[in-house]
Amino acid sequence: MGVKVCKFGGSSLASGEQIRKAAQIVQSDPDRRFVVPSAPGKRHGDDQKITDLLYLCHAAAAQKVSIGETFELISGRYLQIVAELELGLDLQPHLDTVRKDIEAGASADYTASRGEYLNGLIIADLLGCTFVDPVEVIFFDEKGRFDAEKTQHAMSSRLAEADRAVVPGFFGSTPDGQVKTFSRGGSDITGAIVARGAAAEVYENWTDVSGLLMADPRVVDKPHTIDVVTYRELRELAYMGASVLHDEAIFPVRLAGIPVNIRNTNRPEDAGTMIVAEADPHVHTGTITGVAGRKDFTVIAIEKALMNAEVGFGRKVLGVLEANGVSFEHMPSGIDTLSLVIEDGVLEGKLDDVLDGLRTECKPDKIEVYPEMALVATVGRGMAHHPGMAAKLFGSLADAGVNIRMIDQGSSELNIIVGIEVGDFETAVRAIYQAFVG
Ligand code: ASP
């Protein structure tokens, strides 16, 4: 029997009712032995996340302003949860300690971490299982970097002793015993660390959607859910703006070859999305996994006769970028042309210097700048070794009247990226989705 680690996000634990759903999910499968909770999130659109309220308390305390009203909101939320769940747990002394600590000048990290800590106490009580304080099992080094190996050692031995346990998300400790948090959304990372420590068969990440979508729902009407995605595909989609797991959260489980299953607490019957190291590599289905894109790129197109024969031309171009501290995303080239696709944010305030540098160093015949470009990536392991994918993709864009300014197919045949004008962005994403998914 394999172990399953369940991480629940803030919206899955925002109220007593939501926590009950999470508890039912855990209790419905004896393999679900380790639970990683976030702090209570928003119950509705204008609600506040406990973590945000805690940061407000810290800011107020630092200004020597009373934290009273904000802290009342926090303690009110927790006490209401305890009452809704009809627990015998007396949370008041814990709340009093947290309040006193914040007033006495506790650090921002300690203050924020209490959201997960208190929620962890409640959930451990509800499930009747061991509470593991992450300061004892998740470690950062003296420079504040996550110490993966020390953590793995402590975590795995601690979990081996526990039959079932709750490990609050988002924080650990530094060598001098201080609480330190991961970046915002960091409970995803804790979930992955616990999954690695438990050598879990799967890391279940429970949230409020039934998995990752094949396209942005603001662009495509009701896109399908992705059933299976590989880490590499996920990286391509995430880079292109699809919102997925916390980047660093993938790392510990990827290292241990543990699949991640994104699930919906409000629809536990849905299978969600599986994120795996390698889906069957021999199946080239001709389908795509997703389509994603990003706006706000500039293309610098350089033309020079006999560029192909000029030794060192590419180095000079890249030298100019490097000298200006500019990184590029793509560099498609023709015989006498070379284009640089650069993110607007990176180029801000530097375009003129880059152009001057290119003129002086590379002596081109012509340089043109095309602002307001967008990139759209069509991603799918099923595309590799499958003739006709590009034809379908470009055909769909042609039919939709989208002019393609740049094409880049990754050498793995995992993705095809097209550069288009920003105004065509939505049309292009919809056309591609329609062509492949229908
Ligand atoms: N509660 C923390 C945050 O809001 C961490 C998390 O939920 O993952 O960022």
Summarize it.
The protein is an alpha/beta fold and 438 residues long. The protein is 38% helix and 19% strand. The protein contains 14 helices and 15 strands.
What does this structure look like?
There is one protein chain. This protein has helices spanning 16-27, 50-62, 68-84, 92-103, 108-127, 148-161, 187-197, 231-239, 247-256, 313-323, 344-347, 351-362, 389-399, 425-436; strands at 4-8, 32-37, 130-131, 165-166, 171-173, 179-181, 202-207, 228-230, 260-264, 273-276, 290-303, 337-343, 366-379, 406-409, 415-421. The protein is of the alpha/beta class and 438 residues long. The chain has 2 domains: 4-276, Carbamate kinase; 290-436, VC0802-like. It has an 8-stranded mixed beta sheet with strand order 3-4-2-1-7-9-10-8, with helices on both faces. Strands 12-11-13-15-14 form a 5-stranded antiparallel beta sheet. Helix 1 links the parallel strand 1 (4-8) and strand 2. The radius of gyration is 25 Å and the shape is globular. The two termini are 40 Å apart. The relative contact order is 0.10. The mean pLDDT is 93. The structure holds aspartic acid. Aspartic acid binds next to helix 7.
Keyphrases for this structure?
about 20% strand; VC0802-like; 14 helices; globular; binds aspartic acid; alpha/beta; eight-stranded mixed beta sheet; Carbamate kinase; about 450 residues; about 40% helix
Helix content: 25-40%
Low-confidence stretches: none
CATH superfamily of the largest domain: Acetylglutamate kinase-like
- Euclidean distance between termini CA atoms: 40 Å
